[in-house]
Write a structure and sequence with these properties.
single chain; about 210 residues; alpha+beta; 5-stranded antiparallel beta sheet; 6 helices; about 25% helix; about 20% strand
């Protein structure tokens, strides 16, 4: 019986006002008198599910790419591997044009018809570089107090590359350089940077 009583809705009262009648709802059914000054933001319902990124058919491992954005824009680099969420693993090689092993968004890249043979590259090194935590920055212990105040005018310390990352770069570049030197003019092609001049029509160019 108690469960049924709790489930029943509170009844409204009917009151007479002169010749007419009016139904007054229960106090629990009345509208709130207080409203927040600002609208409360509700989380948006997203029905779309995260789908794996589909790389363009022209983005094949070993193909030469032109970077369109970032610090190395205009450089020609070599694609090593596809990473999740539309990210590419590329290298210069570093000894040729100064581009190290790094991740690049596939949207800011032009794929060319030139390809480099990737035979001989150690797959374990590539898998190691492709891991998520490989490119994370190390936490620095910032100087606090008087030492930081008196050392403001000093020259900033140069960034030191970790020896493990340098060894991985050398291992990948060593094999690539031997394959690049087999092809005539390919070394000079990778060294040169891409740029557009007045009157150039990129939509008519053959990459």
């Amino acid at each position: 019986m108690s469960a049924q009583k709790g489930s029943e809705k509170p009844a409204s009262q009917t009151k007479k006002f002169g010749k007419g009648e009016r139904e007054i709802p229960h106090h629990t059914q009345k509208a709130k008198k207080f409203y927040p000054a600002e609208d409360e933001s509700k989380p948006k319902k997203v029905r779309k599910s995260i789908k794996p990124a589909r790389p363009r058919p022209s983005l094949v491992p070993g193909s030469v790419l032109i970077l369109l954005a970032g610090r190395f824009r205009g450089k020609r680099v070599i694609l090593l591997k596809h990473l999740p969420q539309g990210v590419l693993l590329i290298t210069g090689p570093y000894k040729v044009n100064g581009v190290p092993l790094r991740r690049v968004n596939a949207r800011y890249v032009i794929a060319t018809s030139v390809k480099v043979d990737l035979k001989g590259i150690d797959d374990k090194v590539v898998e190691k570089v492709a891991e998520e935590g490989y490119f994370t920055r190390e936490k620095k212990n910032d100087k606090v107090g008087e030492e930081a105040f008196f050392k403001q005018g000093e020259k900033p310390e140069k960034k030191k590359v970790a020896s493990a990352r340098a060894n991985d770069q050398k291992a990948v570049d060593k094999t690539l350089l031997t394959n690049i030197k087999k092809e005539p003019m390919l070394l000079d092609y990778l060294r040169s940077s891409f740029s557009l001049r007045k009157g150039d029509r990129p939509h008519e160019m053959k990459w």
